[in-house]
Amino acid sequence: MKELEHFYQSLDSNNLIVRKTLTQEISVCFTTELLHINTQIILNFVLVCFIAFAIVLGVVSCVVIDLLDVLVLLFTLSLLKFYSYLQFHGISQLSPLIFLSLVYIFSSVTMKKLLQKHNER
Q: I need a surface site. Which of 2, 33, 53, 69 has the fewest CB within 10 A?
């Protein structure tokens, strides 16, 4: 009878250990997934801010200063590099076609402006 009691107690203690381990594993998985989602949201927000900044810089460069044309081109190229980094790590959810079209628009506007200024000289 004592052996049977001891056996049931060991089952209970093993069951408790398994429950604690599973609870810890679930907690770690949930925390990791939450952190990954937050990282995606933050990086997508940063990317959208970069794009908005490029738009503002592009508009200002078309109106105000010649030197900003070159800055817009460099900035769009750096955006492309940043986006490719995000895509490589599987972080960004933004469509590559949308992003590449934005980069193309900014680059083409900048190059057109630079060519106009070069032809005027």
A: 2
